[in-house]
Amino acid sequence: MSPTYEKTSTSPVNIAVIKYWGKRDTALILPTNSSLSVTLSQEHLRSKTTIRASPDFEKTRLWLNGVEETDLTKNKRLQNCLRETRRLREEHEKKLCKEIGTENVVPLSKYNVHICSENNFPTAAGLASSASGFACLVYTLAQLYELPVSTTELSKIARQGSGSACRSLFGGFVAWEMGSQVDGSDSQAIQIAPKDYWPELEALICVVSDAKKGTSSTEGMQNTFTTSPLLQHRIKHVVPERMKSMTEAILKRDFQQFAEITMRDSNQFHAVCLDTFPPIFYLNDVSRAIIRVITEYNTCSESGKLKAAYTFDAGPNAVIYTLRENVPEIINIIAKFFPGDVENGKEYFTDPYQLFSGSIIGTKTLPQGFNEQIIPVHAPGSVKQILHTKVGDGPQELTGETDSLLNEHGWPK
Ligand code: DP6
User: Fold this and answer.
1) Residue 138 and residue 52 share a domain
2) Residue 218 forms part of a structural domain
């Protein structure tokens, strides 16, 4: 058997506070506006990928969450990432051949690969996995091929897998600069601030039940691009200014500014969805009720300051950004209005940071001045789960003996 060339790594999910929506080039995945996101901790949400290259493999194969994808030639986005990383590996090999002699260079760029990838969060939760998945694919290939390139350079490859994936290559606070070149050479991610820059900032994800399968981001944003006049206004007159103010808010750790722009940008993203013809709806009644609850919470705040910010992607789940001190209060409010399904009691809130030490959530009284009448208490299970998480790091290589997702022969374990 030939020696093994294999790497395993994990990559995070990111949730945008300035949304990416619209492509000026669908093949290269070039956006119509810049965007900005917060990378979430991999303790709770992450993709994990093992890739092995071998001259013994008959063909390149991919297993996603235990299921093999059969016709990889159809998967253009995967092919983009494989082609671009192989091209860089080839260049690297040529250089190495000159430096250390051909006989000492392993021609990994010529080998087929086995890719095995899985998420630690249920796909059923409707949490986007393409960003963490493609970031993990590209990062793991770069480790395997020992590519001498920067993370920003890699982000341009991950972008060609899924736009938002380019932002998952960094931890902390990340901007995707839209760029202006037609070849996409300046459409890339950069880190604005690392994970520990603003340690008080935390996130709560409310997983909202949704029976129907919504429009995919890829299809939805193209329809918005071709039909919505409001999107043109957003691209030209709103996002450029917001990118500056949001960057400033993060650098100043100014939660007021951060929260207001986050909510305004989520609102505008869903407004351009409504302005699409025919319209696209991602928010449902529960999502809108969560918006009302957070708005009321902010209105009754004693200091008169915003204490929480909601944001929604292409689905009904809410992500609430807040400062650590407010987390227990917000969990209590959400649990009161959107109680967990009794049968699913354990899953509803696992309290990973032990904030409640055994006390039952949703039983504390509401903050003073909170108008209980704004919405009714919803049916149990309307919010399936509350996940409490923090700002996290970028991709990590795993080197433990048991970390690989492939067995000794290079097949899924
Ligand atoms: C609403 O990155 O999933 O989450 O580039 O077509 O793969 P493709 O789209 P994708 O779109 C994400 C859209 C969003 C907003 C965001 O993350 O910025």
Assistant:
1) yes
2) yes
| Domain, as residue range, for 224 | 201-390
Do residue 183 and residue 283 come from a single domain? no
The Cα–Cα gap between 69 and 56 comes to 20
In this structure, the residue with its CA closest to atom 7 of ligand 1 is: 162
Give the number of other CB atoms < 10 A from CB of residue 160: 25
Q: Is 313 in the pocket of ligand 1 (CB under 6 A)?
A: yes
pLDDT at 361: 75
pLDDT, averaged across the chain: 94
In this predicted model, what pLDDT tens digit does every residue of 24-73 receive, in sequence order? 999 999 999 999 999 999 998 999 999 999 999 999 999 999 999 999 99
CA of 386 to the centre of ligand 1 (A): 22
The residue nearest atom 4 of ligand 1, judged by CA position, is 313
217 alpha carbon to ligand 1 midpoint, in Å?
6
Give the mutation target among 11, 14, 20 for probing the ligand 1 site: most ligand atoms within 8 A of CB.
20
185/315 same-domain check: no
User: What is the arithmetic mean of pLDDT over 102-125?
Assistant: 90
Per-residue pLDDT at 175 exceeds 90: yes
Strand 61-64, strand 112-119: pairing: parallel
In the chain, how many domains are there?
Answer: 2
Q: How far is the C-alpha of 133 from the C-alpha of 131, rounded, in Å?
A: 5
pLDDT band at 356 (very low <50, low <70, confident <90, very high): confident
**Does one domain contain both 41 and 9?**
yes
What's the pLDDT tens digit per position in 261-298? 999 999 999 999 999 999 999 999 999 999 999 999 99
Residues 375 and 285 in one domain: yes
Same domain, 71 and 51: yes
Answer whether residue 168 is part of any domain: yes
Count of CB atoms situated within 10 Å of the CB of 138: 31
Measured by CA distance, the residue closest to atom 3 of ligand 1 is 217
- Asked if 211 contacts 260 with a C-beta cutoff of 8 angstroms, the reply is no
Please tell me the total number of residues recorded for the chain in this structure: 413
Give the residues across from 205 on adjacent strands. Answer: 319, 387
User: Cα separation of 165 and 171, whole Å?
Assistant: 12
Cα 126 to averaged position of ligand 1 atoms, centre (Å): 14
Q: Which of these, 354, 359, 352, 355, lies nearest to 388 by C-alpha position?
A: 352
Assign residue 326 the CATH number of its domain: 3.30.70.890
Q: Is 80 found in the same domain as 137? A: yes
CATH of the domain at 144: 3.30.230.10
pLDDT of 375 reads 92
Per-residue pLDDT tens digits for 203-212: 999 999 776 6
Residues 241 and 265 in one domain: yes
Threshold 0.90, pTM exceeds: yes
pLDDT at 342: 74
